[in-house]
Design goal:
The protein has no helices and 13 strands. It is an all-beta fold. The protein is globular.
């Protein structure tokens, strides 16, 4: 992936009537995804992520609230992009070897589809600091562990 700007998009509801709203953030071949995570951010606004994956590809979908701040960096090319206020309907595609850090606003909810099952013995999450854990401020030059 050469252009990080294409990693974040916004979708609208696929179908709406008086009974319900149906969101369809991913529509097509789901063969590569085998795990679903649901993030319910009940705590204070604080950075999450600050890592990348060697094997796991992810798709995030904001279902409530917002991502206040997000930074993604291709760890090979060092191309970095930043976003603020990514609300409901935002879809984020996270290829392998793309470090990511984000701040979810309190009360926010997000779904993540993952291409690899979780393995307690091999978490595939090398640390790559993009946002300061205490302040949430961006770190100008990422710090890998």
């Amino acid at each position: 992936m050469d252009n990080l700007e294409t990693l974040v998009t916004t979708v609208g509801p696929a179908n709406t009537d008086s009974r319900r709203i149906i969101w369809e953030p991913v529509n097509g071949d789901m063969g590569k995804f085998c795990r679903l995570n649901f993030f319910d951010w009940t705590g204070q606004e604080a950075p999450g992520g600050n890592h990348y994956h060697e094997r796991n590809e992810e798709v995030f979908f904001v279902t409530q609230g917002e991502i206040s701040k997000m930074v993604i960096e291709n760890i090979d090319t060092k191309e970095r992009h930043r976003w603020k206020h990514l609300g409901v309907g935002t879809v984020i595609h996270m290829p392998v070897r793309h470090a990511h850090a984000l701040v979810l606003a309190p009360g926010s909810k997000m779904i993540a589809l993952c291409s690899q099952p979780f393995d307690e013995n091999d978490k595939d999450m090398p640390v790559y600091m993009l946002l300061d854990k205490k302040t949430g401020e961006e770190i100008p030059q990422a710090v890998a562990a």
